[in-house]
Amino acid sequence: MPYRFGLNENLREVLNAPYPFDVVDANRRKAQEKFGGDYIIDFGIGDPTDPTPEVVRDACRRAVDDSKAWGYPNVLGGGGFIEAVRRYMKRRFNVVINKGEAIPTYGAKYASFHIPAYYLNPNRGEAVLIPNPGYPPYSDGTRLAGGTPHYMNVLEENDFQPDFGGIPAETLKKTRVLFLNSPHSPTGKVYTKEKMREAVDLCLDNNIVLVSDECYADLYYEKPPTSILEIKEAEECSIVLNSLSKRSMMTGYAVGFIASKNPDLLKPYTVMQRKSVQGVANIIQEAAKAAFEDEKHPEEMRKVYRKRRDTLIPALEKTGCSIRKPEGTFFVWAKVPENTTPLEYSEKLLLGRGINCVPGNLISQTWNNKNPGERYVRFALVPKIERILEATKRLEQA
Question: Residue 42 sits in a domain of what CATH number?
Fold first, then answer.
């Protein structure tokens, strides 16, 4: 049915885009009818199932009683949350965040969706460089802002890193924003300081805003990832996004921060957040403060995810998958066996063994005649170890 009322044409493009998980959802419903919901071991949804740390829940409970007369939350952050962020950035990355250089945000999704609108001029053919596969809000926010997504294929032959040297000069001329994601979801690649330096130089040379999505920075297996703000001169062109959704199992809290050493880059977000929404709820900021102050639970979860990773991968390899161990995130990016497609492989596991995963081609874009996920499936390491051990038994029968 056609729209009766006027509609932003950029929004129409976003609304008409197919939902990549329609096929996955349909197959999951078939499997639930066949096996029953409790039988399915779900590696598909990247939503932590482990409980939010007690230190966080306690802080939130206390804040409910303490906030009887707090009133509207402060958009710039209150209750010591930003001070906790500043201590975290110094402790974790040796980066000094001064007053006014970080503000709370509703996780990373809200920020990454809105940022393109602050730097793109609609109807001028301006572009945003996006890793492929990448977080969908990067693309949807670009389209709504009237820009054009230009993808950087993240391929095995490039060590699962974007090839900045392969970006055409004509694309760079019209690019206003570049999204970087390390550790990269879903490949699990942690970028080196040299790669981050390359990204900074590219953006400085071409007057591009570099948005570094560091939401998985504390989910790593060996060497701690680098923040973009550790790179010399990055403060001129860079914005950092961080979230507690995965670090602290706080997806239901939807809280994180946006930071920049360049006040000109942070000001648009600060002003528009003040004009469009109230700040993050006081009780949530108190919970987030407690999360950023505590390093015990991220350390423990790194051990948990390592055990899950190292339990699942050998079983997948026995089915014919080829896997490079992820260096970060809680995803496994598995290359399916020869002579099969990601959808065929995932359907075989789901409808035959009750194991759900995501076909990689559904979460990647076809760009330059190539889809980086055309041979891959994604497993999110969110089931408990007991369920993963059960999955390995079923995989031996697959």
Answer: 3.90.1150.10
Q: Looking at the structure, do residues 95 and 114 belong to the same domain, yes or no? A: yes
Q: With the C-alpha atoms ordered 32, 35, 36, 40, is the resulting torsion angle positive or negative?
A: negative
> Can you tell me whether residue 45 is helix, strand or coil?
coil
Contacts with 284 (C-beta within 8 Å, 6 or more apart), sequence order? 60, 253, 254, 255
pLDDT tens-digit series, residues 136-190: 999 999 999 999 999 999 999 999 999 999 999 999 999 999 999 999 999 999 9
Strands 238-243 vs 256-259: parallel, antiparallel or unpaired: antiparallel
Per-residue pLDDT reduced to its tens digit, 325-338: 999 999 999 999 99
End position of a domain, from candidates 265, 293, 321 = 293
Do 39 and 107 belong together in one domain?
no
Pairing outcome for strands 175-181 and 209-213 = parallel
In this structure, are 94 and 229 located in the same domain? yes
Check: pTM over 0.85? Answer yes or no.
yes
Residues 6+ apart with CB under 8 A from 85: 77, 97, 102, 257, 259, 292
